[in-house]
Design goal:
alpha+beta, 3 domains, two-stranded antiparallel ribbon, 1 helix
Length: about 140
Amino acid sequence: MKPANQIIGQVLRVGIGVLTAIMIGGVTIGSAQESVSVRATLMTGGVPVDDPSAAAWSSAPPATFPMSPQVHWQNRIQEVTVKDVIVRALHDGKQVAVLVEYADPTQDPDDAAALEFMVGDKKAHFAHGQPMLQVEGGPVNIWF
């Protein structure tokens, strides 16, 4: 067991290292994402499943999710073209509709999105729920 002064020294060194990395990297602590999930807003009448410009969408609070490059595979993508997506959801008790918005600099009409839902109480790993050595995730249901 290490003496208390060695443990405190290690904690201080790690803390100083993290703060230095934040300051050098230009990351602001205030930019942390506040919303980690999307809650569907209940509405009366049918949900606008085929009208992304319907006025009803303004009643659903937006949740912004930053995108990250695909680095888990051999052919790595180092830079993302879409920096973040804004997601809103509405439901009427029978149907749910999800609106995903993003700025696409490529204007590629073949874009698509998959939605991942946790199944059960165990938090899912972000990579489609697949197990990884570092993270034990719960099962997911993916809509594409």
